[in-house]
Design a protein that fits this description.
Structural class: mainly alpha
Shape: globular
Distance between the termini: 93 Å
Strand content: under 5%
Number of helices: 5
């Protein structure tokens, strides 16, 4: 005799639950197998870089994406170089944005068509006001700085040292503690400037200025 329909349904449900339980158990086991390796990599990175410049209170060594979880010093130095360079660019960008927003302009004209510096608006609007040749000159100048000037040629004292035995401004007169403090100040101000210029750009596009009106 064939079993009642209720018994067939019950058996099917039991089989389905058992299969799901096995799958979940397998996934948990797989995840557990990888957990020690990840923890070991994280521990290696913390041990390698917890005393590096920039790993300071309140966050300490902060690498939520695990970019240097393998403890690779070369990779860390490359990322630190990029961070310092972007920070320096953004510090200049914030100052330039605020100066122009205050209405301060160079005298004279931008080009031979008679467009005055005073007529060039601040922010993104300047890109559509200045002619293409002017934008090309700006890009070419930045490229020149990137390729020929803002780089370590002679082998600097630390990552981001672009003095190249020619531009010192008294740096060698500082003791090691003062040098480390000044490098930390630059790094932190660069980090703040990256967030600052991003906020200025986003709010400009939103039409909500962060700068108080006079």
């Amino acid at each position: 005799h064939a079993p009642p329909p209720q018994e067939i349904v019950s058996n099917n449900q039991t089989t389905t639950i058992t299969m799901k339980t096995c799958i979940i158990a397998s996934l948990i086991a797989s995840a557990a197998a990888f957990a020690p390796a990840k923890q070991a990599a994280r521990t290696t990175a913390i041990n390698s870089f917890e005393d590096e410049l920039g790993a300071q209170a309140p966050l300490g060594f902060f690498d939520p994406l695990g970019l240097v979880a393998d403890g690779d010093q070369e990779k860390f130095d490359r990322l630190r170089y990029v961070e310092i360079k972007h920070g320096r660019i953004c510090m200049l960008a914030v100052v330039g944005y605020l100066v122009q927003e205050a209405g301060i302009r160079l005298p004279g004209d931008v080009d031979y068509s008679g467009l005055a510096f005073a007529d060039v608006p601040n922010g993104f609007a300047a890109l559509t006001t200045i002619q293409g040749a002017g934008i090309a000159q700006v890009v070419a100048f930045i490229g020149f700085l990137e390729l020929a000037v803002m780089k370590d040629i002679t082998g600097g004292e630390f990552v981001g040292d672009f003095r190249n035995d020619a531009f010192d401004l008294g740096w060698d007169s500082f003791d090691e503690e003062t040098k480390l403090q000044k490098r930390a100040i630059e790094l932190n101000q660069g980090r703040a400037a990256q967030m600052g210029i991003l906020a200025l750009m986003v709010h400009e596009q939103l039409g909500v200025s962060l700068i108080p009106s006079a």
